[in-house]
Specification:
alpha/beta, Beta-Lactamase, Rossmann fold, 2 domains, seven-stranded mixed beta sheet, six-stranded antiparallel beta sheet, about 25% strand
């Protein structure tokens, strides 16, 4: 049960039986308006039962960030954090204050439920077919590297959680994230989370450092919550040095866009172009691209690419 002393004016919405069970995103702003996004619903919709004035919106944002030990004020007008909603649910929070948010302080909340869905359940709810599920189970068994792509809110975290839950209990899984938002279940799961600079601008620990640390922790598989920066070089290096079967997610518009996206990230991180091409071509085994139906909100596997199939048909 969400705590009223923590969530304040949002408590009613977060316990609303018509909204809460399928809620995926909650947005406060612009101008204190409340917007919600629910699973299997076509996009954001206004929640008219609640509206906050700028003073209350700012007070709520500061309260939530400070409750997690963070700082949000005029000198540091944006912040990210994660707070527990209940025993099985986390909430990722991003806040940005006015006047940077020109039409009012804005809060963006992503609901992160425990990834208890199995691959079989994803088949039942129509995210994938039985054939696709069987193929992914074979990919896991053969330690193929799987990258999940798609836009925000298409179910990348859900699928990643289902894949992790299907891994054998004897395997050691090291998960690296920028924010602790992958609410995964596995008996040997170790989660490493980045640390941002303190108020003096020092002390930060980036994803790339944590990927290197993960390599020293005897991983059977490495999970990268979202590949989006310099850590791509360390991940590609790991995959080229025997750590096959790793899993990661990436924002991309299609399966075909994933290799160019990885290449751009690698080049931006200073990796030589030839080395980047070779690494990507030799390590990327499977791409699962997810999409969301604009009319129904249904999330599904839109494309499934395998290097072995391309080779067989090439």
């Amino acid at each position: 049960m969400p705590r009223a002393d923590l969530w304040g004016p949002l408590t009613g919405l977060l316990t609303d039986p018509a909204i809460a069970p399928t809620l995926t995103d909650l947005i406060v702003g612009p101008r204190g308006a409340i917007w919600v996004d629910c699973a299997n619903h076509p996009g954001m919709r206004r929640y008219y039962q609640l509206e906050l004035c700028e003073e209350d919106c700012r007070a709520l944002a500061v309260h939530l960030i400070r409750s997690a030990g963070g700082r949000l004020d005029d000198a540091h007008p944006w912040a990210d954090t994660v707070l527990p909603l209940d025993e099985d649910t986390l909430v990722r929070i991003h806040a940005i204050l006015a006047p940077l948010a020109h039409n009012g302080t804005t809060l963006s909340l992503r609901i992160l439920r425990s990834s208890t869905h199995s691959l079989a359940e994803l088949v039942s709810n129509g995210m994938m077919t039985e054939e696709q599920c069987a193929g992914l189970l074979r990919d896991l068994h053969h330690h193929r590297t799987i990258l999940i792509s798609g836009a925000t809110g298409v179910g990348k975290t859900t699928l990643l959680g289902a894949l992790v839950s299907a891994l054998p209990a004897h395997e050691r899984i090291i998960c690296v994230e920028d924010t602790a938002e992958l609410n995964l279940r596995h008996p040997q799961l170790v989660q490493l989370v980045t640390r941002h600079d303190n108020t003096e601008g020092i002390g930060g620990i980036p994803m790339s450092t944590l990927v290197r640390q993960a390599l020293r922790m005897r991983p059977d598989r490495i999970i990268v919550g979202e590949v989006r920066g310099d850590e791509v070089v360390d991940l590609l290096t790991a995959l080229n040095t025997g750590h096959h079967g790793s899993l990661a997610s990436l924002h991309a518009n299609s399966a075909a866009d994933v290799p160019p996206r990885l290449l751009a990230l690698a080049l931006n991180a200073g990796m030589p172009e030839t080395a980047a091409h070779v690494s990507i071509n030799s390590t990327l085994d499977v791409i699962v691209h997810l999409a969301r139906d604009a009319h129904t909100g249904h999330r599904y596997v839109a494309q499934l690419w395998r290097r072995e199939e391309e080779t067989a048909h090439g």
